[in-house]
């Protein structure tokens, strides 16, 4: 599960007045491959379906974006049960929707197709093959809306994610 925000105040150009947004819950599910370099250091490539979004308080406009997310994380084990991870995340847009006054519209072809973020987090092994992960994602690029239909606006993502991982 995750909670994400579309921060328009970090967009370009910056809005004349601050845009207040709220965080929206979403889901994340996927697979990963871990390549160990040593007993403490490894590289982890993930293949995830991620839901991200946000809501503009003043207009009530809600956004929901479905992505194929591809984090590439460098993981370091501080203890046998606790580790940290850091790396980039590349997101490819699968579907985008906008909801205004209860009416939902697909805006996939009017939304920028990619997003790049920095990800940092911690992992705690509850059992030998079951871990809990907590991450923060910080958007690096501007994601554009209304790119083809005029009146373009941009935002950057922020996301916190809590997940459980089962390893085989």
Automatic annotation (TrEMBL):
Pfam families documented for this protein: OMP_b-brl_2
Listed InterPro entries: Beta-barrel_OMP_2 (IPR025665), OMP/PagP_B-barrel (IPR011250)
Ranges of residues in domain Outer membrane protein beta-barrel: 2-143
UniProt name for this protein: Outer membrane protein beta-barrel domain-containing protein
């Amino acid at each position: 599960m995750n909670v994400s925000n579309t921060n328009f105040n970090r967009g370009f150009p910056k809005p004349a007045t601050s845009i207040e947004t709220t965080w929206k819950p979403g889901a994340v599910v996927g697979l990963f491959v871990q390549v160990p370099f040593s007993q403490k250091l490894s590289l982890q490539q993930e293949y995830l379906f991620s839901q991200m979004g946000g809501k503009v308080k003043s207009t009530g406009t809600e956004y929901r974006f479905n992505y194929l997310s591809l984090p590439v994380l460098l993981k370091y084990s501080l203890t046998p049960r606790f580790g940290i991870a850091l790396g980039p995340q590349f997101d490819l847009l699968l579907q985008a929707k906008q909801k205004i006054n209860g009416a939902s519209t697909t805006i996939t072809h009017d939304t920028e197709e990619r997003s790049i973020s920095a990800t940092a987090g911690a992992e705690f092994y509850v059992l030998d093959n079951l871990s809990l992960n907590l991450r923060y994602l910080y958007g690096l690029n501007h994601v554009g809306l209304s790119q083809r239909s005029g009146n373009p606006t941009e935002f950057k993502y922020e996301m916190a994610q809590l997940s459980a991982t089962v390893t085989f």
